[in-house]
């Protein structure tokens, strides 16, 4: 048996990529270019050397010593002092990171201004002369200064324009209030002349206006007024405050402004209201002015002389015309500058984002004692070793460095990261598994099996080939628009749907397959594969469904016979079929999980050093967990599944359980519980018998700063803890074998619920509406049926079946073998840098 298993293929697809821990010794002059090239390759995950100490064991090639003997001191390698006491602001390239952050801020400012102006920036980078970081920094500073100055001037002009526009509306509206208050019956409205006057006339008018402001109302002891404009939303509170402050000794008139005014800061249009407050006394005037200031109301002087009003209005209109022309010219100049920036914005943003990522990565490296080299460590796949070395050689050549980068493979006490190579098709399934937990390094990957089992279990619950065709059309649309949608920013729901387009494709195909087995097309059966195997008892049978059917030829060739639909025994037959099918699928998948646990234990037991305690546990698990678990599960539910298959094939019935199988299941429980803890204790006693000395260290470094990953391998053996853990695991498996098998009955329940809901909508909505000889009722019934199908059966039922299939994989299947306590391989890659990193 062992020889047969050893001859099996290594199942590399099921294991994560083999990783190696490497150290890079990079000369300072080529460090930036080397890290940049590694970012383009995207196959090396750097480790931050500033955050921890690490003991390293490695071998250096003899030629490496010869090449760089005078350049660096290798006596510092066995133990690197990595400055864990320094803050992130004391790192080597922190100033470059700050510069890149400042440039990113400027680029975001440009993008906001372009969007605010309603312009479109170039999505694809425009080809042009390459700029280095210093030139780009100078250019961005110039563009920012120009834009800030332009925006400041535009804001001031807009503020002046708004004041003149408000002044014009106050003159127009308040003049009518003043004429009415003086008793003049003015039948016609004040007409505003559109003539444009010269600046000299405006100077005269302005001085006349100043005289009017200084002089004030002619009657100092009589009725006085203040006119102005305020936001419409504040009018009620403003009037109430004026009434309370003056104790009702005022008259408040208001009128809506004819035009909305643009806020120069937010560029939003604001509705305003013009007001005139009549009062008496200097004290009331002081109070009203303070209230106006508190509410943000702008007060404007209005002369009681109609001639002066007309003259001031003419000059205001003239100034408004000039300011409009100036504002338009400023906007054109600003848009031209923003358009020029927009052509290169994407290219600049990518460049700055990359440079910032490079310097962030360089900050994870550390200088050696000579300050001539940067030392970096990280993980990379074994297959990428040649590519990384080639990239480092190219970086050395391009930077004209006299000394090349030294690439070391080292030993590490830490567990390597997990890296699965995926494509557009398999990535979504891998993300489903990773959502539960990232696989431990070299652990069996459930995503390999989930590619088929996940959409199939979904289809068992969703089986209807009409609904499956609808899902297939949606998946094909997403796949056809793949190139277009991949370059767009989608919403959270649409992004999730687009990311799972191939999952949706397989779910729809399996739903069509299961729907053909169930013979349901929107709950309607069809004679697709020939005639039914049943017919009436005689030719005069008029009520075959209630009187019963007689089988007269071979069974229906594929799927459920359409004659079962509507018969008296339809529900008992389909319930029995789907319930037994759920048990068979569940037992099969749980057995697959137990078998994978054996291959996992065998893999780790044969490929790793069995002297370590954790690997001994895995190795013993292959013999003292796999066999009793397989016996216990199949003695109970495996035999039950076998009886189901025998009855389907032969029609004969057998005893439900044999006493021998029950005895085997009983024996399997202590087999799972007792052997492994006692064997572990025996191995530990034999290994350390007579050894009272401790572990010899390579330095005087205190154990408090030793990494957890290095300490965990020589912890004291605790038999009680091992025994309790094994007891919990055994009890969990025994109870889980029953509960997990019952949990697979959800396949039957959801399939039945989906079928019955579809039947209700078809018979009680569509057929009921079609029974009326009225076009309106038929259209309403068709609309209700389409709405129920789309939103309940195709959306809610799809989500429900998806979540239940997810539960079956995460809990019932993966808990048999999957630990999920690893961590992802996250290489330094420019392709993984997104817009949100800034």
Please give the number of β-strands: 16
Helical residue percent? 55-70%
Q: Roughly how many Å apart are the termini?
A: 57 Å
Structural class: alpha+beta
Largest sheet: 6 strands, antiparallel
How much of the polypeptide forms β-strand, as a percent range? 5-15%
Q: In DSSP terms, counting alpha (H) and pi (I) runs of 4 or more, how many helices?
A: 26
If you compute it from the alpha carbons, what radius of gyration comes out, rounded to the nearest whole angstrom?
A: 41 Å
Low-confidence stretches: 53-84, 183-221, 606-615, 691-714
Shape: extended
Describe this structure in words.
The chain has 838 residues and is α+β, with helices and mostly antiparallel strands. The chain contains 26 helices and 16 strands. Strands 1, 2, 4, 12, 13 and 14 form a six-stranded antiparallel β-sheet that branches. A four-stranded antiparallel β-sheet has the order 7-10-6-11, with helices on both faces. Strands 3-5 form a two-stranded antiparallel ribbon. Helix 4 runs antiparallel to helix 9. The longest helix is centred in the middle third of the chain and has 57 residues, at 306-362. The radius of gyration is 41 Å and the shape is extended. The two termini are 57 Å apart.
